[in-house]
Amino acid sequence: MARTIVVHSHRGGTGKSTVLANLALLLAASGRRVGVVDTDIQSPVLDLLFRLGPGPSLADYLLGRCEIEAAARPADVPGLYVVPARTGTAALREIMTTGYDVGLLPEGFDRLADHFDLDVLLLDTHAGLNNESVTAMASADVLLILARADRIDLSGVEETIALAGRLSCRRALVMSMAPQAVDPARFRRCAEEVYGAPLAGILPYAPELAALYGERIFAEAHPDHPMVEEFRTIIAVLDARDEVSRP
Prior knowledge:
Blueprint: E1 3-9, H1 16-29, E2 34-38, H2 46-49, H3 58-62, E3 73-74, E4 80-83, H4 90-98, H5 104-115, E5 120-124, H6 131-138, E6 142-147, H7 151-164, E7 170-178, H8 184-195, E8 199-204, H9 207-210, H10 218-221, H11 226-239
Parallel strand pairs: 1-5, 1-6, 2-4, 2-5, 6-7, 7-8
Antiparallel strand pairs: 3-4
């Protein structure tokens, strides 16, 4: 049975989709069968990161134009399949106008996991809380929350964890774009004590990442960079099935 990992942030600009893409690439490279679904229909990114061309998307599935399995594209790494949120603006306008049956999302997630015999299903979400992000969270085995080390982002973590506390999923935090002055041990204690969730990793600001302009996935372009080891540390935390967050 596939483990479903939902990646979420309170605000945009935390690097949420970038982190998810790197985790997906490393998981697939380790031999696991991995599915990725971009549920951020408003502002999709994963089709660009994975260099997907035009074709069926999650929006097409939600509008009844295709089956969810047809929207999954094989990526460059064997065993990795990506469902883009949309590949144009027409579907967004139609969804905003007519809406869709939100129950199609969890049904689609289950079908992808079964059809492709997935070990891991990674779900990207829109920043903040909306129908898609809350529905994705409800499907999660693990909720991975990204935040920067500022008061606004960390207040959003409290809101997200309050919601996750009503769901039957583990949760973990990742601090992104961390400045050099951050004390890892202090921030780890804060995460554990204040939020009742393990700190899965601390990702520093990396100029090399900014220089990619979203045209390549970081772990693919810089496989020996120290931040790639931090991505692997995050994966190890996510794999710790016996570790349960405090209520």
